[in-house]
Amino acid sequence: MVWEPVLEKFKELFGGEGDIGVYFAPGRVNLIGEHTDYNGGHVFPCALTIGTYGAVRKRADKKLRFYSMNFECDGVIESSIEALRPEKEAGWTNYPKGVIWAFGEHGMKVEQGMDLVLFGNIPNGSGLSSSASVEVLTGFILKDLFGFDVSGQDLAVIGQYAEQKFNGVNCGIMDQFAIAMGKKGQAIFLDTATLQYEYVPLKLEGAKIIISCSNKKRGLGDSKYNERRLECESALAQIGEVIGINALGDLSEEQFERYKPAIKEEICLKRARHAVCENQRTIKAAEALKHHDLALFGKLMNDSHVSLRDDYEVTGVELDTLVEAAWKLEGVLGSRMTGAGFGGCTVSLVKDDAVVSFLEKVGEAYRNKIGYAADFYVVEIGGGPEKIA
Ligand code: GLA
Predict the structure, then answer these.
(1) pTM
(2) Would you say 314 and 216 are in contact if contact means Cβ atoms under 8 Å apart?
(3) Is the C-beta atom of 115 inside 6 A of ligand 1?
(4) Which pLDDT tens digit goes with each residue over 1-23?
């Protein structure tokens, strides 16, 4: 079992007595609908079977002790529930700490400390939401350990709050929602303006989802992410002077064409065009999937990448190389970057009989152009957070 070493590590570090629980929260991949979730648009993500495992035990005092098997050289990082503030030296523990803090801000004060050991099998910084996975995992643990009355949606909202207010990334709701509400074999068609959602079975008869990880970490991505968000807000404010809308996601493509002269800066216009068209593509893609039209679904994925590359400018040479190599192959229905961009992963829909050549050819093209290897994962769609043991 993947989780057994986490429990073993916990016992080795913190002792085996008392009630030790083992929990899991998935990572996520977004099929389409990128950079729409802070523009009141739609997203279409699903949870993965890879994710974060955590072994945990309540403490009688206020102390927090954290250890990650992914960051072993950091050792045990200590803190206290009475001193919850983001600290650079606290590294990854700012994610669980942020969620404990955010529970307090939502009227659910955590009164006891805990010991927590984590292990994640999502590649870090890959755009598969390893941080949101840790956030939702922490929320789920708090709910279970202390009996807080929170729904899956609440876990998503609190996780997003922690990411924004504690960790300074002004993210949308998609990652935490996809993780907290994940369902095996289903994609989640979510309207981020209302949080209304629908599960759509991901019946990929004869095809697989392949995630290609560029191994280029997001790096400066967070500040660029916030910058894109500001550019969209500026476009919305300008277009809002000529048509009453709450978000770019309220606009159809035709309306955008009509009202776009209101946006004065070329950069903001491009960002807004992406937000509007990507939202419409996502709505069409969910329909296509419901009608088992994988060819159309794949085409919309390709169009999404082009828009993220040319209008939103968040792809970069690594992601473009992976996607463009995939597009050249027979049996690839669609391929695009997934997540925030600026490095990270691509997601491709590939016919079963083309999987082997995909791994070989895309891998080779990437190595030749970029100079180091990409990693590939043929993934399964998993469920939301759970207690395993
Ligand atoms: C990151 C954010 C999400 C979303 C995507 C882009 O993953 O956390 O909220 O904005 O980027 O679609």
Answers:
(1) 0.97
(2) no
(3) no
(4) 899 999 999 999 999 999 999 99
